[in-house]
TrEMBL record:
It comes from Pseudonocardia yunnanensis. Keywords: Membrane, Transmembrane, Transmembrane helix. It comes from the Bacteria. The chain crosses the membrane at residues 20-41, 53-74, 81-103, 109-128. The lineage of its organism: Bacteria, Bacillati, Actinomycetota, Actinomycetes, Pseudonocardiales. This is Integral membrane protein.
């Protein structure tokens, strides 16, 4: 019995948009990971987000950014993996908005703004990734 091949994202633009969007997402996630890990003690009072949450989020972003770099570097990007990133990004954005609503008493105005701006940026990443996938044959 032979295994069925995974559908891959072969795109009319050679996957350039999808790869760009994945790398852009990785760069943003990597930058947030550095900030979350290195500056957590300084940001806690400024944002109203606990040091543990900032460090935990930073650690997650390290792993996520590495996964995106690996995915973008693949010769052919598996469609299920790319769709997982798109759906995950949309879920992250929705969760970020829910977190602002749930933590509105403890977050500072700057903290709310930072979380909402990163949520909007993640929606843009998801949109670019979705557009890259739409170009797939």
């Amino acid at each position: 019995m032979t295994a069925l091949p995974l559908p891959i994202a072969t795109t009319s633009d050679g996957g350039r948009l999808l790869r760009f969007a994945l790398r852009l997402d990785a760069a943003g996630s990597g930058a947030l990971s550095v900030v979350g890990l290195a500056a957590a003690p300084l940001l806690t009072d400024l944002l109203g987000i606990s040091e543990d949450v900032l460090r935990g989020t930073g650690a997650f972003f390290v792993a996520y950014a590495v996964a995106l770099v690996v995915l973008a570097a693949m010769r052919t990007i598996p469609r299920p993996a790319a769709w997982t990133v798109v759906v995950g990004n949309l879920a992250w954005s929705a969760g970020s908005i829910a977190a602002v609503v749930a933590a509105r008493e403890s977050l500072t105005a700057l903290g709310m703004g930072v979380v909402l701006v990163q949520a909007a940026a993640v929606v843009v990443f998801a949109e670019l990734q979705w557009m890259g996938l739409r170009r797939a044959r």
